[in-house]
């Protein structure tokens, strides 16, 4: 796979990315033509490229942008929303926007300040909020699947982290498709076999105006550390990153890990406030976040 | 022949001199950037790793790796 990359000329590269994506979608039975898919778009290269590829392939794909209210000297969330809005308008696509402050009265900074822990980074709260908002939008919108722009580098970094820490539960769950379960949307990652470099090249070649700036909180993230280890390895031995992840999928298929339970056993209760699945009785983690006192 | 190239990266710009008409991959290496994590544009056009740079070129480096703990 690696050798194809940028040696191809522009139209061939764009076609190659589209064909490979279609193959991944079919191989992992992610969704079928005609089914409605919701793409989680951040305004970055991966998710906008994914949306573009699905659009070119003729899939029925709507977008979801979550305005997190992240702003430093640069209005990261505002710029990202604008990129998503412009992208959708240029192609006549549907974009649903959930603005945290307008919908829930708080942005990410406000929500993480509600947690009594002295955390510097809002990432854990942010992750919880995004997963919850995405799931709800996909379930309520009746979509066949929720698609995210995770690429090979993302997946390999998560795999490396989970392996180094032997997070067996997470390893069992890591797969390009997560089946729908009671209250949970089906989740798919059609870009999981693409190098991050290729998704960036796609965005540039397809003329997608994505937001180049990173979320200010991504600096010094663990994810970036794992990625840099993998990339040093890849520099020395081209193709290693791909092998690491793909061989894991093979090993998983061959039964190295027990399959995850069909029904998510931990999340069998429903939150009395929002109706989303939750592990414990009473309010779900998201609703608790909203009512917690400062 | 020595060549001088203008390198733009993250809103900064600098002049870099190379000993000869280097390929993109060599230029990145000399600048200390990995080809795995950076793409190179010239005049808005994406360059392959084996493209040779010429004297007076302006290139823009794009970091491709993103990631927060999300
Ligand atoms: S880096 Fe952290 S705060 Fe920023 S979008 Fe990702 S999870 Fe949210
Ligand atoms: Zn709830």
Strand arrangement within the widest β-sheet of chain A reads: 3-2-1-4-6-5
Question: Which spans of chain B of ≥5 residues are poorly predicted at pLDDT below 50?
Answer: none
CATH topology of chain B: Ubiquitin-like (UB roll)
The CATH class of chain B turns out to be Alpha Beta
Describe the structure.
The complex is a heterodimer of chains A (294) and B (70). Chain A has twelve helices and eight strands. Chain A is α/β, with parallel strands linked by helices and 294 residues long. Chain A has a six-stranded mixed beta sheet, sandwiched between helices. In chain A, helix 2 crosses helix 9 (196-205) and helix 7 (152-164) crosses helix 10 (222-236). The N and C termini of chain A lie far apart (51 Å). Chain B is mainly beta. Chain B has one domain (3-63): Roll (Ubiquitin-like (UB roll)), CATH 3.10.20.30. In chain B, strand 1 and strand 2 (12-18) form a beta hairpin. The interface between A and B is medium-sized, with 37 and 17 residues. The structure holds iron/sulfur cluster (SF4) and zinc ion.
């Amino acid at each position: 796979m690696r050798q194809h990359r940028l040696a191809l000329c522009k139209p061939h590269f764009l076609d190659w990315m589209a064909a490979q994506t279609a193959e991944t979608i079919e191989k992992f039975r992610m969704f079928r033509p005609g089914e409605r898919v919701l793409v989680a778009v951040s305004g970055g290269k991966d998710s906008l490229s994914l949306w573009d590829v699905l659009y070119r392939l003729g899939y029925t794909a709507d977008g979801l942008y979550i305005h997190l209210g992240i702003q430093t000297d640069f209005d990261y969330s505002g710029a990202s929303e604008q990129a998503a809005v412009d992208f959708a308008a240029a192609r006549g696509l549907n974009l649903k926007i959930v603005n945290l402050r307008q919908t829930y009265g708080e942005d990410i900074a406000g929500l993480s300040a509600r947690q009594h822990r002295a955390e510097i980074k809002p990432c854990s709260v942010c992750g919880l909020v995004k997963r919850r908002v995405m799931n709800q939008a996909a379930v309520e919108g009746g979509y066949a699947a929720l698609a995210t722009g995770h690429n090979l580098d993302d997946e390999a970094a998560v795999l490396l982290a989970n392996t180094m820490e032997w997070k067996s539960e997470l390893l069992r769950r890591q797969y390009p498709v997560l089946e729908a379960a009671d209250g949970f949307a089906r989740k798919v990652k059609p870009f999981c076999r693409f190098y991050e470099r290729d998704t960036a090249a796609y965005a540039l070649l397809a003329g997608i105006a994505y937001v180049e700036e990173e979320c200010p909180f991504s600096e010094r993230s663990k994810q970036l550390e794992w990625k840099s280890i993998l990339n040093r390895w890849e520099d020395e031995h081209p193709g290693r990153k791909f092998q690491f992840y793909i061989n894991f999928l093979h090993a998983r298929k061959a039964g190295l890990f027990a399959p995850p339970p069909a029904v998510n056993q931990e999340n069998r209760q429903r939150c009395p406030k929002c109706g989303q699945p939750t592990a414990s009785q009473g309010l779900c983690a998201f609703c608790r976040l909203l009512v917690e006192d400062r | 022949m020595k060549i001088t190239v203008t390198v733009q990266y993250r809103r900064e710009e600098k002049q870099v001199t190379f000993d000869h008409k280097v390929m993109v991959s060599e230029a990145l290496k000399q600048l200390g950037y990995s080809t795995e994590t950076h793409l190179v544009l010239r005049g808005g056009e994406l360059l392959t790793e084996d493209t040779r740079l010429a004297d007076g070129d302006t290139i823009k480096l794009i970091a491709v790796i993103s990631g927060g703990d999300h």
